[in-house]
Amino acid sequence: MEPSNKYRVVWYAAVMLLMLGFVLTAQRRRVVTVDSGSRPLMGTLARIVVVAKDSARAAEAIELAFDEIVSLERLMSDFDPNSQLSLVNRRAFTEPVPVDDSLFEVLSASIEYSRLSDGAFDITVGPVVGLWRAERNTGVPPTLQALEEARRAVGWQSLLLDPGKKTVRFAKPGMHLDLGGIAKGYAVDRALELLGQSGAQGAMVDLGGNIRTFGVPAHGARHWNIGLQDPRRNEHTLAVLNLDNLAVATSGDYRRFAVVNGQRLSHIIDPNTAQSAQSVSSVTIIAPSAMQTDALSTAVTVLGDQKGLLLVQSLPQVETIIIKNGAMIKSANAARFIAKTAN
Ligand code: ADP
Ligand code: MG
Fold first, then answer.
1. Which listed residue, of 75, 119, 260, 297, carries a Cα 20 to 30 Å from 182's Cα?
2. Ligand 1 centroid vs 132 CA: distance in angstroms?
């Protein structure tokens, strides 16, 4: 063979190898995104997006994650008389009630958030929530007397947990637990954990605005982009957040509120006053876990912007964006998550 031909062969071989390398790498990177669409769950809408090697695997993982949320709802629903939570609410003043590990975990965490927030977050607020819930149907607000009476049954210090026996007990009569401010976040964490174990390369779980992401973003994007809704204008996005391997939740009066005497009342109750918390329009929390963002968004709504900001700044890896009187109040590092603002 002529020397020039020999070089040509080597040259061709090198080019072919390089191309093969590109093709193989592209193959390895090729993933599909599967979106579950919205399904009614836990009194709200749930949506799961999975990035995986193939759509069959993604669809299977999605179903497993939904099953997990369904089983947690069966445990923790306040509306289902057969849930373990309902059993606790009926019996825990009479005797200690043993509960599943998941429920025990949520109850322990709730007490921790009560302690952290100086009682602003309090799952024993159930009797007061019940009165305001009735108002939603009848349009008649509860009397001060009824609220005062309900408030006497509130107090996280009277919720007694036995970590050894995994039992729950109420120290005073009339107590009623409401996990509406934390169970969805916990369920998001559990669903996401399962998705990770089932081989998904990336995923997002959204349970009524309690959102957490991990891994490879959907549709080949560089980041998981989450829209932050304007508290006063439905379907209007205030900002887009880049949230990779993080959770976000917003408590606001835009989705569930009642109008009483011309005032918008949020469904979040200040346990101290038994009144609806309404000093801020919305509170968004960004943190590693969805249980954190769920509970803290409720807590900061009660605390208001000043005390709320102090609480957030005291916690590592937690940021907040508070909307009050149309203005955006941000914690020290919140801005780094904002990819785009509307105005
Ligand atoms: P959403 O349900 O819209 O996501 P939140 O996560 O902020 O809203 O939780 C609000 C729910 O939490 C209420 O519907 C009620 O069930 C419960 N709740 C209300 N006030 C408190 C409070 N101070 N602490 C803990 N839970 C609360
Ligand atoms: Mg919450």
1. 260
2. 12
